[in-house]
Amino acid sequence: MASSGNPNNLDNLAELDFAGVSPEEFAEIVKGLSGKQINEIARDQPLRARVLAEVFGRMGRQFKPETAGSLEALIRWKVGGGDSEAVYETRIADGTCTVTEGRSDAEPRVTLVLGDAEFLKLVSGNANPVTMFMTRKLRIAGDVALAAGLTRYFDIPKA
Fold it and tell me: What is the pTM of this model?
């Protein structure tokens, strides 16, 4: 955790050892952050890069292969927007989930587009993906049915 004080304080968040934070602790931290605070994190490019790398790095460990079965899919994530858009790809195949940073030449089965605050709320279990889609905070291109079922393939903490 942060060296001192409340981890929801942005100064302390910058010092946080994300690798030592459980998914449940991360969900609690995100739950305590306002959209404005998350947008401040997004403007701090080194901190944003650390947070995104940690979240996407955990996807493989939180993947539930028994639920995915024979699913084969490439999911492209576009987080943020404009000059600061981060792109990651999640490939589910043969009972594994691999994540790469950047856009490949492969055609994704689904692309998810959302802002930084919405992304962190979604992956930490602090937002409902259906509500996000209906309020246009989450845009989906491609296989909407796959997108709707993505949460069941991952062990997403509840804060």
Answer: 0.87
